[in-house]
Amino acid sequence: MSRARGFRSIRSKELVCFFCLRTIKPSEAKVVVINDELIGMNFKVIACSECAAKYGESIRLKAS
Q: What's 27's DSSP letter?
């Protein structure tokens, strides 16, 4: 029950682009995957269509 309530509250909030921090509509939101090889995890972030085209659908952070 609490999970369903939490999901509804997320939907009602505004979406913000991870890269340019602009408020975006749900129709123009894209998901970009950031792959961090150093810690071995993938992060999914929301981006506007302009930033998604600029950075691509997948970003790889290499461990050095």
A: G
